[in-house]
Design a protein that fits this description.
Length: 363
């Protein structure tokens, strides 16, 4: 218990590890300031020395100082504690009674172990943590593929990551690229792997495994940055699905020409949603509900089940889902533009349904 208690407080944080060629990869952790770590170490060491000195002085009659019994002073007890705990042991002061020797075995020896843990345990823990992190990073690099990369981790990036997690995506399949340590910290607290660096640089994108990614979300704050990032991502990952955000709708065509498969105009979309909430509050509330899966409804794409094979899309409406479109091969067949009589094998559905992550409870 004592060792675990010390390790929890004195163990080095990953952000304190030395800079290496892979130091941009940040794994989830909790930070303890170096000053606090030093104060905790000093406090524990002083406390152990004082406790040992008190124990020795309480049995001073059972200690011999160069053959003289009962002459131990508080300074002698402190001196004996220091040389004993540090394993120096000059032998000028020694326990002679059985009770004092028993106390040395049962009390002072465990305190000596604790003292040594404080002195060298941090170094051992530091080396162990460094090795463990390097192993985790190498293992992650070997296994990461068909994952989702989020470039930019402001409000848009965090919301995108949360939506992916709410829809069942595993944390290990999401990698965040952000230029600042604040974004990296937010990503690590969500359990995601974070790459600290500029998303416009090829080495940073390769560090995040973009060439092996299945999906990339470009959620930077500036449109010109989004264009450069999208160009680099498309060059490194020709077959990845790229979704990019744009502040001004006029720049949407530029992003599409840069390689984005889908472009979301954030400013215009927010403006339309606010106006819709004023003109038609019920419609605005419904749209807000659809955008936040925790409120009740969600829009998802899913494969049809064996039981749904041969049914018409309208028959699914009675089962608590509203079908918006059917994806058949490379075609998207919206129900307001075409009539699909039956569902076929390998069809994908775009539906509105109750969210399994909803937090409200209806009476």
């Amino acid at each position: 218990m004592a060792r675990r208690w010390i390790a929890d407080r004195l163990g080095p944080d990953e952000s304190d590890l030395p800079d290496e060629d892979n130091s941009r990869v940040q794994m989830p952790s909790r930070r303890i300031s170096p000053a606090r770590q030093i104060l905790i170490r000093i406090g524990i060491a002083i406390g152990i020395v004082i406790v040992t000195a008190i124990v020795v002085y309480a049995e001073r009659g059972c200690y011999a100082d160069r053959g003289n019994f009962g002459t131990l002073t508080p300074i002698d007890a402190l001196y004996y504690s220091t040389v004993t705990l540090s394993t120096t042991g000059y032998g000028d002061i020694a326990p002679v009674c059985e009770s004092a020797r028993l106390v040395n075995v049962l009390v002072i020896t465990p305190l000596r172990f604790l003292f040594l843990i404080v002195l060298i345990g941090t170094t051992v823990e530091y080396l162990t943590r460094t090795t463990s992190l390097n192993i985790r990073r190498r293992k992650w690099r070997r296994h990461v593929h068909d994952h989702t990369v989020i470039i930019g981790f402001g409000v848009k990036g965090r919301s995108a990551a949360q939506m992916l997690l709410d829809n069942g995506m595993d944390e290990s399949q999401i990698v965040v690229v952000t230029p600042d340590h604040i974004g990296s910290g937010d990503a690590k607290r969500m359990g995601l792997v974070a790459i600290t660096g500029d998303g416009r640089r090829d080495d940073v994108l390769e560090e995040a495994g973009v060439p092996l990614a299945k999906q990339v979300i470009v959620a930077t704050n500036e449109d010109d940055t989004s264009v450069l990032v999208t160009l680099n991502v498309r060059r490194l990952a020709p077959h990845a699905d790229i979704v990019a955000s744009v502040r001004e709708a006029n720049n949407s065509s530029i992003l599409r020409q840069s390689g984005a498969d889908n472009v979301i105009p954030t400013a215009e979309s927010a403006g339309r949603l606010m106006a819709l909430s004023l003109v038609s509050p019920e419609a605005g509330e419904l749209m807000e509900d659809l955008l936040d899966s925790k409120r009740g409804l969600e829009i998802v794409q899913r494969a049809i089940t064996k039981q749904e094979l041969g049914l018409s899309p309208h028959e699914l409406n009675s089962k608590g889902e509203v079908v918006l479109a059917v994806m058949r091969g490379d075609q998207v067949k919206r129900l307001d533009m075409t009539s699909i009589r039956v569902l076929e094998k390998n069809d994908q559905l775009l539906v509105i349904r109750d969210s399994p992550t909803r937090t409200d409870i209806e009476e």
